[in-house]
Specification:
The chain is an all-beta fold and about 80 residues long. The protein is about 0% helix and about 50% strand.
Amino acid sequence: MKIIKAKIEWGLKYANAPNIRLLVDELPSRDDLRYEQRGCLYFAEKDGYVDFYSYSSPGEGFGGRDFRITLTAERDVKELEV
């Protein structure tokens, strides 16, 4: 993943932290990511790209969607269901 362009949005009219926007040449596929479970957080990093899900139990988030992810420790696929 190569950064092509970066922009900071300062939000000067608001009392909040600035946002950074990055334009990259490609994003890794979810199939290439390996997630580590840290409590109810599932976290993956590859070449500077970060992806994560917060999941504590069925019915807690995702708006009815299911996600299949591969965990690092178990080397298998876990389906986060709602």
